[in-house]
Amino acid sequence: MATYAIGDVQGCFDELKNLLAQIRFNSDRDRLWFCGDLVNRGPKSLETLRFIRSLEGNAITVLGNHDLHLLATAFDHKEPGKKDTLDAILRADDADQLLDWLRHQHMIFHDRDRNITLLHAGIHPHWSIKTALQLAAEVEGILQSDNHINFYKHMYGDKPFIWNETLKGWPRYRFITNMLTRLRYCDREGKAALGSKGAPGTQAEHLLPWYEVPDRKSRKDTIIFGHWSTLPQAGISSCNNAYAIDSGCLWGGRLTAMRIDTFPFVYSHLDCPGAQKPPEKYLKEESHRKSRGKKKST
Q: CB of 240 within 8 A of CB of 269?
């Protein structure tokens, strides 16, 4: 039995199926871990959701910001964006079942046997894995309750920027959600900078990628994350014991499968045609990543 972590699919279903054929995935035997952003921007979000749901216990999924955006859009608390490709899901006969399944997925997943943690974006540097799991459970409880509709009303926004255990109510839940599904940069004190989205080297001087903050409490823990397709290490190597696997399939990069039941971890990649035109910054980073990755990937 093999276990693979899969990078952000974002509705690129044909590429997902081709990658699974490449690694000879067997749904009766193997398991898949999805790092979030199953849907949106790509052309086949509906097919992607249906397929992953059909895997039942053979798939683990954590929620990304685009998955939460789908839920907010479906429950009339957010207008679709110009680049959204969610209409097929919203019109589907099985939309209610798919949305119910989605909101019952993890915000973060921890495998005790392997001591590996899966999430979409990042972990606040002041949080241990234990703390992150406890905080994620608070948000999961809301999403899986009748109160989930109110959650979407308060989910959007960057504030608060700083973690404080005394935070309560929607500001607390928003901060937890932002860290797990949107975080890239923060300062040395843990103040989040959610507006900074470029590759390392483009950020303000006082900011660091979350995994580079000195004395990060989760620095000794193995973490797998997606969300950040412009990272030079994405789909190639560790970022201080955190493994980035969003290698930009949506933009014409690659879709990554990382086999995690062996060590060292083994990467497999599928070159993707791209469903949307990539930002110029992404093109430069992807060219650099491919040149580095040829010797390290299989």
A: no
298 has pLDDT over 50: no
User: Which residue has tokens 């992953």?
Assistant: 52
Q: Determine if the pTM surpasses 0.90.
A: yes
* Neighbouring residues of 54: CB distance < 8 A, sequence distance ≥ 6: none
pLDDT band at 42 (very low <50, low <70, confident <90, very high): very high
Are 235 and 129 in contact, with CB atoms under 8 Å apart? no
- Domain 58-221 is found in CATH 3.60.21.10: yes
Q: How would you write the chain as a 3-class SS string?
A: CCEEEECCCCCCHHHHHHHHHHCCCCCCCCEEEECCCCCCCCCCHHHHHHHHHHCHHHEEEECCHHHHHHHHHHCCCCCCCCCCCCHHHHHCCCHHHHHHHHHCCECCEEECCCCEEECCCCCCCCCCHHHHHHHHHHHHHHHCCCCHHHHHHHHCCCCCCCCCCCCCHHHHHHHHHHHHHHCCEECCCCCECCCCCCCCCCCCCCCEEHHHCCCCCCCCCEEEECCCCCCCCCCCCEECCEEECCCEHHHCCEEEEEECCCCCCEEEEEECCCCCCCCHHHHHHHHHHHHHHCCCCC
